[in-house]
Amino acid sequence: MRIVLFGPPGAGKGTQAGLLSENFGAAHISTGDILREAVANKTQVGLLAKSYMEKGELVPDEVVIAIAKDKLESLGDKGFILDGFPRTIPQAKALDAALKDIDKPLDAVVNLQVDDEELVRRLSGRRVCPSCGEPYHVDSKKSEVEGKCDKCEGELVHRADDQPEAIRNRLKVYNDQTSPVLGYYEQARILRNIAACGDIQDIFGTITTALGE
Length: 213
Ligand code: AP5
Known about the structure:
- The chain is an alpha/beta fold.
- The protein has a single domain, classed as Rossmann fold.
- It is about 50% helix and about 15% strand.
- The chain has 9 helices and 7 strands.
- The protein has helices spanning about 15-25, 30-40, 45-55, 60-75, 90-100, 115-125, 165-180, 180-185, 200-210; strands at about 1-5, 25-30, 80-85, 110-115, 125-130, 135, 190-195.
- The strands form 2 sheets. Strands 2-3-1-4-7 form a 5-stranded parallel beta sheet, with helices on both faces. A two-stranded antiparallel sheet has the order 5-6.
- The longest helix is centred in the last third of the chain and has 15 residues, at about 165-180.
- It is globular, with a radius of gyration of 16 Å.
- The site of BIS(adenosine)-5'-pentaphosphate has 35 residues, from α1, α2, α3, α6 and β6.
């Protein structure tokens, strides 16, 4: 499995990538998670990325491309699910070039489609585990023990960019800068559009059917 999970903030990329990774053994690569870890560890990349992320702006292409390439190169023969990368045309072109070098082209780009009102509802009620990245929701996906991750017992947090102003900006950034990437993959004939509202497991089933798994 070599796929990109694409879609606006809150579409369920992280949720579905987790399920795909558990079921098919492919590596889940989330550039958002890698950047948040860098911010928490105050690395050079983290210090640079912090202000962009808090406002909901994209981190510069060259930084994110280097992170994604490093991760992909470390995988060997393992499959992967890219979550949140690529988000611009230069990132998509860099990914193509990197995968061509190792003769492992993408199988598919899965585009999760959700309307804006539902995206805002999902993001405002989201809680995440900073240790393992597992996403929860105060209404639709509660943890068994309130405030604790079911998987690793980490303390759940409300992400700084899940505040109303940052959410609005992230949706605008998605429409202006990221959605044009869809046309790029449509031309390459590997785009699979998935209606991503409704039950999480049902959406997972639709994705696996679309991938022919
Ligand atoms: P990133 O972490 O990638 O954030 P994002 O793309 O905004 O996506 P989210 O994590 O917010 O949402 P998701 O689609 O994963 O949804 P989730 O599964 O959590 O990036 C953060 C920042 O890092 C960016 O703003 C940017 O600054 C920087 N960055 C990262 N990558 C970059 C790149 N390539 N280039 C430049 N900058 C980059 O689900 C959301 C909520 O909904 C959860 O609460 C979940 O439980 C719930 N939910 C999921 N599915 C359903 C459902 N079917 N029904 C009801 N609730 C659901």
